[in-house]
Amino acid sequence: MTSSLKKLALPLWLLLLATLYFCAFNQAPKFDSSIMSLLPHSQQQPMVQTAIDKTSASFSNQMLLLVTGDNDAKIQQTLPYVAEAFQSLNQVYRVQWRVDDNFLTRFHQQLFPYRFALLDPQSRQALQNKQFGQFEQRTLANLFSPLSTDKPNLIEDPFGFFSHLSQQQKSSVNIQFVQSLLKVKDTEQPTYLILIKLRGDPYSLDVQKSVIDTLKTQQKQLKDIGLTLRASGMILHADAGAKQAKHEISSIGFGSLLGIVLVLLLVFRQVPPIFLMLLPVAVGCITAIAVTILLFGRIHLITLAFGAGLVGVSIDYALHFISERRYNCAQRSLSSILPGLALGLISSVLAYSVQFFAPFPGLQQMAVFSVVGLISSWLTVVLLLPVLTRRSIESPIPIATSLSAWRAKVPRFKLNKATLMLLLSFVSGTMIVIINGNAQDDVRLLQTSPLSLLKQEKQIQQMLGTSSSTQFILITCHSLDECIENEKSLIEQLVPLVKKNTLPPFQALSEHLASKQAQVENYQLVSQLYRAKLHSLYTKLGLNESQQQKAKFAFEETRANQLSAKKWQELEVNEGWRDLIISREDNNSATVIRFMGYLDSKAKHQLENTISAFPNAQLVDQVANISNVLQTYRVQITQLVLAAYLAVLLLLTWRYRMGVWRVVAPPILASLFALSAVTIIEGGVNIFHLLGLILVLGIGLDMGIFMTESTSNEQTWLAVSLSTLTSLLAFGLLAWSQTPVLHHFGLTVLIGLSVVWLLTPTMCRHDE
After folding, report:
1. Are residues 637 and 754 in the same domain?
2. 83: how many CB neighbours lie within 10 A of its CB?
3. Is residue 506 a part of any domain in this protein?
4. What pLDDT is stored for residue 447 in this prediction?
5. What confidence tens digit (pLDDT) does each residue in 601-634 have?
6. List of the chain residues with pLDDT < 50
7. In this structure, are 210 and 65 located in the same domain?
8. CA–CA dist 725, 732 (Å, integer)
9. Which of 568, 601, 621 is a domain's end point?
């Protein structure tokens, strides 16, 4: 580099930083707290993915509130105030706490014309079996029973088909209308439901803060008057995950920073060196955040938590420079360690870059964050620190001598038959442990929600008869009528399994909408009933022939009334069932049979055998699908990690020739030991354990490279030891994280780096 370029390098670097910071932070950065955004994009068929997106959205944008107490009247008086508190929020689209006074009227107006075409299954079955007498008896009982509240219209619907259709619509959830309020049935205490539909993304921190703060306020106020407010919804899980991530960002970041500062104070016994070491770290982290926001539009909270561990890596370059600077002038210090710094950066960047090729959006973001952070820290050390340390006084560091003396006593590894046999036994033993472990690909291992929250959600769903299950049957077709017909055939096979408790109850479109052909058949069945029992019924009621003729005429007027699928979707009263229909722009259609409970392995096996006879039907299990994807990508990540190790090996072989084994052996052996250890501790290896090996490789190689490149091993070993300790402080704390992703990553790094540090002095050359 020419003298003029050297003079321009620092101003250009500072200008670039200022530009990046201005572009990234001129508006408030957006944060992401969804654990699902860390996972691979789905490889599902378009129709399957559309169904998954629609069913997920119906759950994620909704929050359920249950108000419970001993006093029914007090709850009814309180509901409007709770509803108003949420409805006043900009983040809330709609709050439903009562049935609109006109709802039942609209329900009647919209569906009553199709009362003979849309028969409930029980009525249709009885008509098919010619059990006409029971309809006559049902009408008489409803008319003359003092307890009956369901009086039939003897002209428009003498046999009460519409009332039974209405009951079927209501029975899909465990709710009854009490004074237009949504009251939960069969509860020990009076319990009422409030439905909240969110306007914004439940993973938005602004939405979480506004909604959750209001929830907590209402819970406290209701508790003061003897009522209980319980909640269920994705936003609660998102809020719990965000708070946990933010807590760990602060605790891990602060803990690692405090530990590093204390260690550096103990070693250097001066404040200025500590500032100089932390400056590149700060620049690296801020620059990484800025570039990540510019490239991805938002930054994941787990990326920030992961970035807290970057402190332990990026400080390495400053440590080597400052340690060397205590013995030499600034420029001579830099020139003596620059080859090692450059090679260390290249190998680390190469190792971290592997994450970018992983099909995980979150890991790609972490890769960008890490690479940018390391490069920024490195440039700050190379360009800025020599300027800031020109007037520093050279002085030795006492602890460096002690560490070097200890290292000199460590036995040096020699390539002979005994050690080779020992290595072979070690490699074989660790491989046996790893291979015999159970691979951990279940996405539920990433669950971060508190058990209390999961328990409460399950209780609420059981009370309401609803489910957030991601398991459903998808029936594809060319038209909705075709789907409905296929549904009916499949449901005939499923109903016996539900009665045997082999399968949980389900919801299906065909329970609410009959096909065109079925509607014609229903009308014909009712026509047979009219011919068989209408005259008998009217005779027993003492009604004249004129009224009988009016009933027949009203029946004939409905002959052409058929409800198409398109019209059914447009009806306001059917809004709650629209997510059972999947439509795409390519004119393909599908319907969903949604289960109201979880399918265990036995139930899944039984169901898969049942639907195998229906070529257009398939079971969709989102959790199982993601777990299968994790398994696939775990294998691919293993290949990427091996590729990273191979690429680094080739690079270093070019540099060190036959002596390359002294540099690469410690991180390789440490990686094998770490994988076998986590297999024993946690039962198996997952993809995030494997990704931890990349960090073990990066830092482990830095140790070997600096020890090989340096001409003054005393201060180099000090810097290597300090960088290992700072990395352990940063990533070791991740091992105690409650976030599974960070825990698995941190545990691998904690074990791996500890072993690397112990092995390095046995294999790297000693001072002659």
Report:
1. yes
2. 19
3. yes
4. 63
5. 888 888 888 888 888 888 888 777 777 777 777 7
6. 171, 767-768
7. yes
8. 10
9. 621
Last-in-domain residue among 558, 591, 621: 621
In a domain, 390, yes or no: yes
H helix runs in 88-155, sequence order: 103-111, 121-128, 132-144
**Helix 205-224 with 72-87: angle, nearest 10 deg:** 160
| 638 and 609 in a common domain | no
Alpha-carbon span 485 to 508, nearest angstrom: 12
Output the DSSP codes for 654-721.
HHHGGGGHHHHHHHHHHHHHHHHHHHHHHSS--HHHHHHHHHHHHHHHHHHHHHHH-S-HHHHHHHHH
**Looking at the structure, do residues 611 and 681 belong to the same domain, yes or no?**
no
Count structural domains, the chain. Answer: 2
Secondary structure class of 593 (helix, strand, coil): strand
Domain shared by 465 and 596, yes or no: yes
* Residue length of the chain: 768
Q: Are residue 600 and residue 666 in the same domain, yes or no?
A: no
Distance of CA 417 to the CA centre of its chain: 51
CA distance 581 to 579: 5
Neighbours of 242 (CB within 10 A): 22
CB 508 within 8 A of CB 595: no
Task: Look at residue 251 and tell me if it is in a domain.
Answer: no
User: Is residue 407 a contact partner of residue 720, using CB atoms and an 8 Å limit?
Assistant: no
Q: Where are the alpha helices (DSSP H) in 384-444?
A: 385-388, 398-409, 417-436
d(CA 662, CA 659): 6
153 by Cβ neighbours in 10 Å (0-12 / 13-18 / 19+) ranks as middle
Distance, in Å, from the CA atom of 453 to the CA atom of 240, rounded to the nearest integer, reads 9
Q: What domain range includes position 390?
A: 3-32+270-436+625-763
The two structure tokens encoding residue 325: 């600077």
CA distance 95 to 68: 18
The rounded distance, in Å, linking the Cα atoms of 754 and 692 is: 13
